[in-house]
Amino acid sequence: MTTTRARAALIAATVIVALLECGIALDRPGTGDSSGTVLGPDDASVTLTIRHSHFSPEHLSVQPGTFVRFVIRNDDPIGHEFIVGDGGVHQRHETGTEPVHPPRPGEVSIAAGTTAETTFRFEGTTGSGTVVYACHLPGHFRYGMSGTVDVVNG
After folding, report:
1. Residue 118 — pLDDT band, cuts 50, 70, 90?
2. CA distance linking residue 12 with residue 51, whole number of Å
3. Alpha-carbon torsion 42, 16, 77, 134, what sign?
């Protein structure tokens, strides 16, 4: 990542954390709850909506080892992508040239006005961490098209 992109990502993450610490409730379609529910440890399904080049919800929490089926509905008039994974995955996509992704775990392209699915297992059995999901089409991540998943022990 360039220094500017790294700063933008850090600022975005800081803002999200600050909003959450202030107690702002985010919509959680698919979980049936906006009260801070932690998904897992069993399989879970989450519906994300893309509107105005932003994901909703922008934050989720899961237990280590949870296998999540993401259903992503793109309500925008332009295509997007959904990429979830570690820093290496995001670095590869931010600098990559793959305009359309073949469906593979944690990576999918979503055409305008359509719905797509992908799955991802949030590994780990101890400790906690944050995993980012984002759209890396040109300018989208910088615009704020990302979210976070906190991996926390139940």
Report:
1. very high
2. 18
3. negative
Residues whose CB falls within 8 Å of the CB of residue 53, separated by 6 or more in sequence, listed in order: 76, 78, 80, 135, 140, 143, 144, 145
pLDDT tens digit sequence for 64-103: 999 999 999 999 999 999 999 988 889 888 887 666 666 6
CA-CA distances (angstroms) from residue 60 to 17, 43, 82, 111, 136? 12, 14, 15, 24, 20
Task: Provide the CB-side half-sphere exposure for 67 (13 A, CA).
Answer: 4
Gyration radius of the chain over CA positions = 15
- Position of tokens 């899961």? 62
| Interatomic CA distance for residues 13 and 141, integer angstroms | 12
| Biggest CA-to-CA distance, the chain | 41
Contact 63/72 with Cβ under 8 angstroms? no
**What is the spatial distance between Cα 104 and Cα 84, in angstroms, rounded to a whole number?**
11
